[in-house]
Amino acid sequence: MKIRHLKVSAVLLAATLLTSSCVGSFALFNKLAGWNKQATDNKFLNELIFILISPAYAVCTVADVLVINSIEFWTGSNPMAQRVGETQEITGKDG
């Protein structure tokens, strides 16, 4: 009976860990989709481009899920969403 309770507890713990929400911003996928939406002014040509580069969407999604969103979860910043080369001036309360 103890083993059964242990197995049920292990399954519930695994389910808790696997269903926790860690959804990132999917910046790489969104950049590709944004580029595809504005590649041309013709929506039919954009659809053709989408069909041709659909493997790139799969690669970007896998890279986002496994690597980039994991980095975003652990560090708090997404490396794809950062604006490299841009400076921002911040004034604190002391000036």
Summarize the structure.
By secondary structure, the protein is mainly alpha-helical. It has helices spanning 2-18, 27-37, 43-52, 54-75.
Overview of the molecule:
The chain is an all-alpha fold and 95 residues long. The chain has a domain at 23-78. The protein has helices spanning 2-18, 27-37, 43-52, 54-75. Helix 2 (27-37) runs antiparallel to helix 4 (54-75). The longest helix is centred in the last third of the chain and has 22 residues, at 54-75. The model has no long low-confidence stretch (mean pLDDT 82).
Features of the shown structure:
mainly alpha, 63% helix
Number of strands: 0
What is the count of DSSP helices, taking H or I runs of 4+ residues? 4
Give the termini separation: 67 Å
Q: What is the averaged pLDDT score?
A: 82
Q: What's the shape?
A: flat
> What order do the SSEs take from the amino end to the carboxyl end, as H and E?
HHHH
Largest sheet: none
Which strand-content bin applies to the residues? under 5%
| Class by SSE composition | mainly alpha
> Cα-atom Rg, whole angstroms?
21 Å
Unreliable segments (pLDDT under 50, ≥5 consecutive)?
none
Helix content: 55-70%
